Amino acid sequence: MNHDAYPDYYLADILRSAKTIALVGASPNAERPSHRVMAFLLRKGYRVIPINPGHVGKTILDQPVIGRLADIKQPIDMVDVFRAADALPALVDEILALDILPKAIWGQLSVRHDAAATKAEAAGIKVVMDRCPAMEYPRLIG
Q1: Model-wide pTM > 0.70
Q2: Residue 142 has pLDDT above 90, yes or no
Q3: Which among 140, 133, 120, 113 is positioned nearest to 34, based on CA atoms?
């Protein structure tokens, strides 16, 4: 996949097919982008599971916070990443260790690591980087 330009159908297919999203780097702070994007995704009907090891046992937007992806008890369709780009290789390794792989990994604005994307794509996972689903959803789906 050319990660410099995504076809609209590619992004729309991910957004339409995803039902359960793990949001890595979720923040309880309403001023943080991850909090606002999580709220948007919840309003659009997605099930969003916040992942943040520093907030396990708490809730964000009434959703229980999970410490790591391996602790999620049901399949996830998409992993939305609010972490620094250099954290993406280790996160891809964590994703590839799951029993059931997600269909997509979505790196938020400025989250891009081409080698990590190549590794995930080799395992059959679609990858989007340096994009925000809360910006793409209104543009592509309405």
Answers
A1: yes
A2: no
A3: 133
Q: What's the mean pLDDT in 74-90? A: 97
**Which strand ranges, in their side-by-side order, compose the sheet holding 20-24?**
47-51, 20-24, 78-81, 104-107, 126-128
Confidence band, pLDDT 50/70/90 cuts, at residue 26: very high
Interatomic CA distance for residues 139 and 142, integer angstroms = 6
User: And the tokens for 131?
Assistant: 């994009």
Q: Residue 85 has what DSSP assignment?
A: G
Average pLDDT, integer, range 87-101: 97
Q: Does domain 8-108 sit in CATH 3.40.50.720?
A: yes
Contact 140, 11 (CB under 8 A): yes
Tokens of 88: 């993406």
Nearest to 105 by CA among 83, 129, 86: 129
Give the Cα separation of 126 and 124 in Å (integer): 7
